Amino acid sequence: xxxxxxxxxxxxxxxxxxxxxxxxxxxxxxxxxxxxxxxxxxxxxxxxxxxxxxxxxxxxxxxxxxxxxxxxxxxxxxxxxxxxxxxxxxxxxxxxxxxxxxxxxxxxxxxxxxxxxxxxxxxxxxxxxxxxxxxxxxxxxxxxxxxxxxxxxxxxxxxxxxxxxxxxxxxxxxxxxxxxxxxxxxxxxxxxxxxxxxxxxxxxxxxxxxxxxxxxxxxxxxxxxxxxxxxxxxxxxxxxxxxxxxxxxxxxxxxxxxxxxxxxxxxxxxxxxxxxxxxxxxxxxxxxxxxxxxxxxxxxxxxxxxxxxxxxxxxxxxxxxxxxxxxxxxxxxxxxxxxxxxxxxxxxxxxxxxxxxxxxxxxxxxxxxxxxxxxxxxxxxxxxxxxxxxxxxxxxxxxxxxxxxxxxxxxxxxxxxxxxxxxxxxxxxxxxxxxxxxxxxxxxxxxxxxxxxxxxxxxxxxxxxxxxxxxxxxxxxxxxxxxxxxxxxxxxxxxxxxxxxxxxxxxx
Length: 508
What we know:
Blueprint: H1 4-19, E1 37-40, H2 47-57, E2 61-66, H3 72-76, E3 79-86, E4 89-96, H4 100-112, E5 117-122, H5 132-141, E6 143-144, E7 147-148, E8 153-159, H6 173-176, E9 180-183, H7 188-198, H8 202-210, E10 217-221, E11 224-228, H9 230-246, H10 252-256, H11 262-281, H12 284-288, H13 294-301, H14 305-347, H15 354-372, H16 379-399, H17 407-447, H18 451-462, H19 464-473, H20 476-504
Helix pairs in contact: 1-2, 8-14, 11-14, 13-17, 14-15, 14-16, 14-17, 14-18, 14-19, 15-16, 16-17, 18-19
């Protein structure tokens, strides 16, 4: 069994293999031999989300169906009577209209302009008895009735093991022998990487750092199933952000609507209340500005375990917002630089019209922004594209004031816009580095070299944007503490090994 991150990598390799061609342009793996991929694992661990990510990253179209919502008629199509001649004699014969599922694939190709794609069929092992033979035929031959899935499309099916769903039908050996099966397990570390990049609510990440056993639960009780899934945490995260924007507070009954395990919901609701209280009562801005009063230092030093955890989580969350802003500007500047290089190559060609070239470039980026809004990609990716498009639109307004739009004048104007963006990036990185140092000052003053500092270092090392920032811009104190903590951890591991060896020595 593998985690969802490993499964995503395996799926990406499978897609590359299935779509690769030889020197003659023929598929290296025959279409009929391209086994459908079967993902089997607990509900709510991100199977559907991974499909959306893969489609975006591999530039593929995506058609998703929950197969339990379909009947044989919608999958195969409706029967119709047609005339056929056999041996010179005309007969009435039965054919079928195009399957709704196959039809959706062709519609997706027409809508997106993409010839290659993923057909994702969820809950494949919960099909009705009447539809089961049809699904077997589809997995074997890639056909629904008389209609075949277009070449270049990859089938990925997903199902839950029987302990999670009473409607599950056991797949027979004939079917299993025709699929590429991947068994999944829940994994907090893999999810935290994803969660950090997606901007999951800070209180959730801080809570799961201290209570990893509450990340995923599936328990049977006399009253029914009690469960917590990664999907529940992610959906709750979005609600909490919306509640914050509206000035609302999510209490335990609200939390229970997403974390359907009363004990975990109660525990997290208590931590969330503490998180809100510290966010309101402690002047986090003064800490980030290096101006924390002595009273704040004393209060935080005297707090309980959960209070200290909430404080460290809040400070890490504030810094992550700064790191994320810096990441957006950095990626926007990199992409703008690439666009300007391409523009320069075209604008200085003989008889080139630089204003026309810029209009084409701007229109392409505006279209890309429009398309991204309808795709399931990281929100940050959408924001980067918006920043890039807005910068180009601002440059376009500046170009209108040029008395003579020569290639050099147009390029110089665009270059000025790029330099302003680079300056914003530099200022953003400098401000983030300064506030990171101030947080270290505060933590040292309040807690010294205690577990709170370990939490903070771990949070920085494990966060997507914090680790990116540290790799790009560095932080001497992080490096010093991280090296020291790793040394102490390794030392403790070696001492534990020595203890075990001594205890296992034979007595003379």
